[in-house]
Design a protein that fits this description.
The longest helix is centred in the middle third of the chain and has 13 residues. The termini are far apart. The chain has a five-stranded mixed beta sheet. The protein has a four-stranded antiparallel beta sheet with strand order 1-2-3-4, with no helix packed on it. It is globular. It has 150 residues and is mainly beta. The protein has two domains: 54 residues, SH3 type barrels; 72 residues, no CATH class. The structure holds zinc ion (ZN). Zinc ion (ZN) binds next to loops.
Amino acid sequence: MASLSVGPGDDIDAWCGKCLMIMNHRIIAVVGNQVKKVECLTCHAIHAFKQGVGQKGAMVSRGSASPATRTAKSTAPKPGKAESEWKVFVADMPADIIPRKYGAFECFAVSEFIEHPTFGLGKVLEITGGERMLVIFKDGRKTLIFNRSK
Ligand SMILES: [Zn+2]
């Protein structure tokens, strides 16, 4: 039987209905093999776990650390580090660029600067799937939905 390698207190990517995108969440409750409740680390809403809006393999795609090797004491990345990383990217931004407003139905390209209503200025680092992109913001890297079909 497959056993769940995450437990309460671990971080997990999940759909946040408030932020309207895939966000880092902290697991609040696990029942059996299933994550039941999560807390959004961005808006701190506590809600039922939803992996994503689409069906396409929501969280496995982003592979760096394999969940199986993670220990229970895994903590969120230090904000200071993320911020300095973000500053480097933003320092690169040409003065005449106007960042495009983020929208789930818009299409963005790698290296494009975007303006997000919650996170502010960000830069697209990577397209991680047909509808997902990794964007660096002042408070860290976020996976956003984009290019969604209506
Ligand atoms: Zn949220």
